[in-house]
Give the backbone structure.
Amino acid sequence: MKISFLINSLDMGGAEKVLLTYVQALSRLGLYDISVITNKPSASKIQSKMEEYANCHSIFSLYEYNNTSPIIKLYKSIKRRIMLHLFLKKTDVIIDFLDCDFDRYIKSFKQKKITYLHSSFQHLMRRKKNIAERCTIYDAIITICQDMHAEIHSFSPQWIDKTHVIYNPFNFEDLKNSSIDYSLLTESTLNILNGEYILTVCRLNEETKDIATLLDAYNLARKQGCNQDLVIIGDGPDKVNLEQKATALNLEKHVIFIGECENPYVWMKHAKKFVLSSKDEGFGLVIVEALYLNGNVISSDCYIGPSEILQRGMLGELFDVGNKQALSNLLNQPSTRMPLQDGQLDIYRADNSVLMLHKLISGISNAIN
């Protein structure tokens, strides 16, 4: 059977990492001819790794994708439709992997269609015009946690028969191996790693993340005796502003911006605490990773995601979004967390998620025949 995944690009990112895990596992089943179709090519390691397991096609060159002139915009609209028809002509099932991004281009296609929703429906309604209407073209909608599943049913109860919960897949053995791989560390970063530090890993985009609150909370914590550094891994449009904020708080000697990091897992393993201070999350991949590698996790209680992963506070600490005083208290609080029990994170194992997706694809394909 031929299946095709659609996603904007294979640049480094959470959804892109998840897709790679899916494609690797589905490829090992030996049941599918897999294609991954993107709007633009990428030089990322995800792209090069994906090419080992799937046929990868880009609709536009990088020049075409980045050109925003009105004439080129019209040309791109026409070319996208033509190329999708060519790439998907022999596909049995189309999987639009990120929040209905391709809905208007594939709605006339006769193949069965699946979409993944990676953000809360409330957030998608703010960010994406007519998202509820756009979801109607799909034969199945996959949500990535139970809270999101309940939320979408409250908005659209009529979708109860076509929505499915499939948790994001994790290859824990790969995480474990990466956490003991020091090969990419320089002498200076190794010195930081061997010290005491609090860690966050996220895209530096304050629209959905909230490193500003973390910096304020860390500043308060230092005044109350916290002597651990704060390590921030990630890049994004607000990096410079956040560096300036750290300097304005006189924290430049204690807040370390690592930038984009190919292997954040070695940092997770050695951190004293891991913090996610987001305003909004769909799932929170890094929470599962940090739980597995470290166990000392603090997260904002976003509308969707972290609370479910942390089992309403049983597996980690939760604080109200934007509450810098509460976060400061947690940063200073000694950890009393017990190690995770065997099997506590098994629901996130790649084999489980891939089996559920395989069953869904099989069910849809049977409906075709």
User: Anything to note?
Assistant: The mean pLDDT is 93. Residues 172-344 form a domain with the Rossmann fold fold (CATH 3.40.50.2000). The chain has 17 helices and 13 strands. Residues 198 and 273 are 5 Å apart (CA to CA).
